[in-house]
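Researcher: Going back to the complex we discussed earlier. I've cleaned up the inputs and rechecked each line, so this should be the final set. Can you rerun the prediction on the complete assembly and write out the structure?
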Amino acid sequence: MTRRWTSVARAAGLLRADGTPGATIFAEMSALAASTGAINLGQGFPDVDGPASVAAAAQRAIADGANQYPPGPGILELREAIAEHQAARYGLVVDPGTQVLVTAGATEAIAASVLALAGPDDEVLTLEPFYDAYAAVVAMAGATHTTAPLRATPDGFRVDLAALEQAFTDRTRIVLLNTPHNPTGAVLTHDELVAVARLAQRHDALVVTDEVYEHLTLDGPHGRPPHVPIASLPGMAKRTLTISSAGKTFSFTGWKIGWVAGPEHLVAAVRTVKQFLTYVSGAPFQPAVAFALRDPGVAQWVDDLAASLARRRDLLCEGLVAAGLDVVRPDGTYFVLADARPLGHEDGAELCRALPALAGVVGVPVRAFTTAGSSADEALASWVRFTFVKREDVLERAVEGLARLGR
Ligand code: PMP
Ligand code: GLN
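Model: Rerun complete. Updated structure for the full complex:
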């Protein structure tokens, strides 16, 4: 039994090779930034909090007594606000009574969905590189993780459609999708989403889609790319669970209010697992997030955040290019990927350990988001992820430090 637990934990990246407990790459790199005093462009969290009106709503909720367990599925007011948001933004109709579940961040929604719907005979297919939690939870479910690569192109990171088709099998139970995509910053195009939808239908797979950056698509030379939930494609609502959270949209990543919406029977399955993970969480934050989702002033704040993030992306990308790295400009999220090979760095992980000394900056090696030995892993060996969700003066200092790399 101990052996089995150990092997699952190791497969999930929860233990190091020597059997001692491991930390996530984000915790490890934030610790490196703290111990060296380097600027932390590793872990993606804003250094400015979200709207004061939303914080005030949480404070009021505490004062008004929202301090005991909320209902298992989340408070009705928040489930209604989520349903209204899905309908108004995307024309997706969900019943707040049975088709919406509030979770402890998107992280719990993803974990509970995978644990509820996939097991030892199943494959869970993700794009690669992938958000680190996906590999961990697929391993915890005892399922097999398969991937389809995103490739760097002049048009951003794009899904390799031939590889995607090949990656599907009749054991593919879940496609765990993510758009806008962490770490590449890709916003999947309509054609890419149609390809995923067609293959999911052909192989009778479910889609679990992580859309935590749904409001953070960034303006560029071709305008601001639209975020399209795959659930809005013909025939897809009945096989799709859509996940999002308040953390990124409203710059309150520590509140950990997430949600999942979709067909009643799938949401019921996820709820069954979720009640034994956290049961419930975030009582006073739930009404505050309901307020945030409904308030027009907050919606404007979110649009302004996306505009400001586009400028900050440009600042960081220009700095990275000036320092001699190759950059693929992201269309969304908090992140940009940069290739350090032109500067003679072949190993992104080694470079990340040296970056505090070399440039006074911390980044995350892209290999933290790949499976050892895969084609994406090899292609991205010398790449580093940097976040631009930091104040402009912080990014300017980071860019000055990064300039030392090219000298
Ligand atoms: N999915 C992606 C793609 C993320 O980048 C993150 C981290 N912010 C999460 C999920 C986790 O979201 P939450 O903090 O709401 O659990
Ligand atoms: N989502 C954040 C990132 O990708 C980090 C979240 C975490 O630390 N787990 O940087």
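Model: Worth noting: The CA atoms of residues 35 and 198 lie 48 Å apart.
Researcher: Good, that matches what I expected from the previous run.
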